[in-house]
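Q: What structure does this chain adopt?
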Amino acid sequence: MRRLANPNDIEQVHAIYVHKTVVPFLIYDSLQLDDFHTVYEGMLKRGTFFIYEVDGQVAGFYEASRYYGRAQHVAYLGSLAVDPDLHGSSAAQEMIKDAIANSQASGVKRVELFVEVDNPRAIRFYEKLGFEIEGTLRKFVKRANEENYTDEFVMGLLLE
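A:
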């Protein structure tokens, strides 16, 4: 079940966000809970941060936002993560399919996301859902404690 995130979700979201298998592929490096409050408050303010629940527990989360003007038919999915305990289950697939269906119901014709080139598991996952690699953002992210920058792929899915 999808719902907007609320302040009470912060501890569960933080636990997933900072997990060692998740945090390398999200926009912020690992943060202590106190420091994460500022990031989380920003996510809540935008009103585009969703929680995906399974059996009443936070199974994952994502941001879904629309572009403006001539690109208002495009939705961007970001800050995507699923509880590592649920990796390999259908939770991630159900969450993304729900995000896509919700976007399409609101008039979206294209969904896009970014994925690090060194995350083959995520790339395969998105390709199975119909996303295609459309380009490369060179030296797009720099992780803490890594010397080099990492490229990201732009992946898109056309709806219709």
